[in-house]
Amino acid sequence: MKTNKILSYTLAAMLLATASSCDLNEVPVDTATNEAVFSSEAGLELYANSFYDLLPNTDVGVFQIDDNSDLVARNGVDDYLAVNALSPITSSGWTWTQLRNINYYIENTQKSTVATKNHYLGVARFFRALFYFEKVKRFGDVPWIEETIDVNDDAALYGARMNRYEVMDKVLADLNFAIENITLTSDPSVTRITKNVARAYKTRIALFEASWRKYHTEDNKQSTADAWYEEVVKEANAINGYTLHSTVADKSYRELFLAKTAFADESILSVALSASLQVYSSANRRFISPTYGNRPSLTRRFINTYLNLDGTPFTSKAGYETTPFVEEVKNRDLRLKQTIRTGDYTRTENGLPVIAPPNFSQTNTGYQPIKWCYDERFPFDDESRNDNAHIVMRYAEVLLNKAEALAELGKMTAEDWTTTIGALRKRAGITGATLTTLPTKADPYMVSFFGGKFSNPVLLEVLRDRGTEMVFEGLRPDDLRRWKLGKLFQDAPMNGMYVPALGEYDLNGDGKNDVYFYQGTKPTSTTPGIAFVDVTPSTAVGRVQLSKGTSGEVIWNPGQREWADKKYLYPIPEADRIRNPALGQNPGW
């Protein structure tokens, strides 16, 4: 009987959750199932489970979002950056089904007599905040809707958009309500929305908004930015019960992204995958397959930002520009060897470890990612079969959000530095004064890296670690947009390892050559399994070149990338604008 009742609740929640489409005037209809769902805690919980679809898709994954950024060389060019590809005709995302689902739930839960209803209202308002945050990032001004719209409500159906800054004030109110009312503080499974999840997301959302207000000066909102930075710090300080995952120094970081059950010491929210339930991600296939997906590789421009183990900048070493790969990866921030293939990296073949240098049939620059990727080849490389937990929020990001906010506010203390950036660097094996002492001189390489946008030495070092700690976790494109550094989408070089001259090279120092760079006729080699890379001068898309012809950095040509400031916001899709002319259009479109 109990099983049947739970099944009924589940069916009712599914019916109510799906009784709408993408049109604002199609709304869920009250049925006999309404009372069954909203009259018990079990019903409220089951319905609220439908909101989890708002979390990042596990197939595409947060690990693929950074492919469209200044840090990654990838196959092809996304429509967002391709010449003349994005337009009001091709734009998408003006969908509201999930919002109607949430608002319907909120309206009915408010009427409920269930004693714990405020907890579930907090969960719903957290997801509404998340929904609107994504909409504001994409479109700027959007209509604010907080009730189920009646079919005859023309004012709501055909009304204008609300100013993005007013919408974000409402997002903040929803987050604050969630934090105040969600009763679950933490969750051992790391898969449920808790008070700490809401707090962590608030640090992310408030940091985005603070930066947008500070750097998008055309909106004249700079004077309101500090209040949002303060919200980041306040909420980060309120999060408790987490620490940085730390086991073996050169394994702790990567372990986070390989665990089948997320480590609850650092992970705040994850999406659980399961081989038994056939719920997978495609991480290995997207990073390793030579024919599937974007085949992302990191750029040398970014790799240069990883510190030496003694805490000094790699770019302060004489001759760093011409240091071959096998040497440049030595004695560096231990996150580097846990993010890309370096000298001692091995993979498992038939149960045995096999040395695995960067494979130029799978990488465009030589900096081949291993973060998120299982070391066993089959079936993970050839099929979308990863079942490692899909982490979408972790404590390291909270520390970075707090550190950036403090740096922007000019309030960073030595203690703050030690417990944020210093703690992250300590886990990465870095030693020296950089763990406890605030930087006082801006690193010229980092100043240049951000195109002169930032000169504050503390902020620059925070941003250095934001990159090295969070790469392939889906934050970088939003970072570029909030800092108003969109030009880096187009201008950042797609450069790779340094090649002194044509010929064969040992990339991992095991005494066996791994790659042969040549021009003209493909040569022969006595080295089994060596990868041949043709660097004959060419302007063709999808070709590797050397920056000085027969020597220099590897240069990858994915195709022409185009940036225009109008791309900070997507255009309103033409079909939706025609349906409701009051929506108008975003600037430049």
Automatic annotation (TrEMBL):
<dbReference type="InterPro" id="IPR011990">
    <property type="entry name" value="TPR-like_helical_dom_sf"/>
</dbReference>
<keyword id="KW-0732">Signal</keyword>
<comment type="similarity">
    <text>Belongs to the SusD family.</text>
</comment>
<keyword id="KW-0998">Cell outer membrane</keyword>
<keyword id="KW-0472">Membrane</keyword>
<dbReference type="InterPro" id="IPR012944">
    <property type="entry name" value="SusD_RagB_dom"/>
</dbReference>
<dbReference type="Pfam" id="PF07980">
    <property type="entry name" value="SusD_RagB"/>
</dbReference>
<dbReference type="InterPro" id="IPR033985">
    <property type="entry name" value="SusD-like_N"/>
</dbReference>
<protein>
    <submittedName>
        <fullName>RagB/SusD domain protein</fullName>
    </submittedName>
</protein>
<feature type="signal peptide">
    <location>
        <begin position="1"/>
        <end position="22"/>
    </location>
</feature>
<dbReference type="Pfam" id="PF14322">
    <property type="entry name" value="SusD-like_3"/>
</dbReference>
<feature type="domain" description="SusD-like N-terminal">
    <location>
        <begin position="106"/>
        <end position="207"/>
    </location>
</feature>
<feature type="domain" description="RagB/SusD">
    <location>
        <begin position="295"/>
        <end position="589"/>
    </location>
</feature>
<dbReference type="GO" id="GO:0009279">
    <property type="term" value="C:cell outer membrane"/>
</dbReference>
